[in-house]
């Protein structure tokens, strides 16, 4: 949906992407699996429309979800806005459509910067180090942890199997998807 929206509009437009998101996943229209973030986002949208049908929904009130749902569609946004100085603002806006959560937003910004490094041909370990240096990962983590709700049971379980220290578990679980592999 995000790729189609960007292709049709020639740029990222939060309203167009959000409209497509809501239309695609409406109950009765989409019959596949719908994750927690999508369900809660649709509920937020429906409640808002019911309360005030004439008001325009801002599509920045996605689920309070710290999973990595936005990561699946992030590449198209980063590729299209590769040199845009506002890339991280666009990433935040795209993330908030279905995940209005500080951990998810921080991780998607981290992932966007990581993608930029990889697009430039860097190896994964060097790319990760560069992003850590660029954003000051510890500072990013502290800001997120103060405002975020605790990680879910599944995320905690997966992270407990890791054998090395993690500064930001959600970001690192994206970078290192299997506990047995360390760069």
Please give a structural write-up.
- By secondary structure, this protein is mainly alpha-helical.
- It has one domain (2-152, 160-175): Orthogonal Bundle (ADP-ribosylglycohydrolase fold).
- Helices cover 62% and strands 0% of the residues.
- It has ten helices and no strands.
- It has helices spanning 2-9, 14-25, 36-51, 71-80, 87-98, 102-119, 124-135, 137-147, 153-160, 169-175.
- Helix 6 (102-119) runs parallel beside helix 10 and helix 7 (124-135) packs across helix 8 (137-147).
- It is elongated.
- It starts with a helix and ends in an 8-residue tail after the last helix.
- Mean pLDDT is 80; it is low at 140-151, 162-170 and 172-183.
Could you give a short description of this structure?
The protein has 183 residues and is mainly α.
Assigned CATH class? Mainly Alpha
Q: Could you tell me how far the N terminus lies from the C terminus, measured between alpha carbons in angstroms? A: 33 Å
**Whole-number tally of structural domains:** 1
For this entry, what is the oligomeric state of its chains? single chain
Look at the helices and sheets and give the structural class.
mainly alpha
Q: In angstroms, what is the radius of gyration?
A: 17 Å
The count of helical stretches stands at 10
Largest pleated sheet: none
Percent of residues in helical segments? 55-70%
Quick one: CATH superfamily? ADP-ribosylation/Crystallin J1
| Bulk shape | elongated
SSE run: HHHHHHHHHH
Going by CATH, the architecture would be Orthogonal Bundle
List how many beta strands DSSP finds.
0
Arithmetic mean of pLDDT: 80
Instruction: Return residue spans where pLDDT drops below 50 for at least 5 consecutive residues.
Output: 140-151, 162-170, 172-183
Strand content: under 5%
CATH fold group: ADP-ribosylglycohydrolase fold
């Amino acid at each position: 949906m995000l790729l189609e929206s960007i292709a049709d509009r020639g740029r990222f437009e939060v309203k167009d992407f959000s409209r497509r998101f809501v239309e695609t996943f409406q109950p009765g229209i989409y019959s596949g699996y719908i994750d927690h973030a999508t369900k809660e986002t649709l509920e937020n949208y429906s409640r808002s429309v019911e309360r005030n049908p004439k008001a325009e929904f801002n599509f920045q009130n996605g689920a309070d979800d710290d999973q990595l749902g936005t990561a699946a569609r992030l590449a198209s946004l980063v590729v299209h806005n590769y040199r845009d100085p506002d890339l991280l603002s666009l990433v935040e806006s795209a993330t908030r459509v279905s995940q209005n959560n500080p951990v998810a937003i921080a991780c998607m910004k981290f992932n966007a910067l990581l993608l930029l490094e990889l697009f430039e041909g860097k190896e994964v370990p060097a790319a990760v180090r560069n992003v850590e240096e660029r954003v000051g990962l510890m500072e990013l983590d502290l800001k997120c942890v103060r405002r975020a709700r605790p990680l879910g049971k599944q995320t905690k379980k997966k992270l407990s199997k890791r054998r090395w220290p993690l500064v930001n578990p959600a970001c690192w679980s994206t970078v290192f998807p299997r506990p047995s592999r360390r760069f």
